[in-house]
Amino acid sequence: HLKYHTQIHVRSRRGKNSHGSKISGIEPLPGEDKLLITSNDSRVRLYNLRDLTLACKYKGCVNTSSQIKASFSHDGRYVICGSEDHCVYIWKTFPEVTKFPSTRRDRNENYESFTAHTSVVTAAVFAPVPGFFCW
Description:
Elements: E1 23-28, E2 34-39, E3 43-48, E4 53-59, E5 71-72, E6 78-82, E7 87-92, E8 107-108, E9 112-115
Parallel strand pairs: 4-8
Antiparallel strand pairs: 1-2, 2-3, 3-4, 5-6, 6-7, 7-9
């Protein structure tokens, strides 16, 4: 059975989303104490469960009213998420350290995207085994 432990406020610190938004997806990072949260403020957030801090915020996708859930690649190195703008977005889970000291390591706005459909993309996942193709 489940036991209540604590709660995390999934919201922006200021602005129109500071009141919080609907959570549309929850995904654990395999082998680590981290949790990926997708919400209806067009953000995907990675939380550290050891100290309940925000480890990274992934920006780019659009999710204001859909039940969209981000997920990890099989090795946890990438995050993938559908979007209301008909695209799929892919980020590195842990952004590379840059030589610029002003770069925030808890924000990841660097992504790859592609148009995947003519409608809202509510689900996007990586193939479970790299190099595996179905014909």
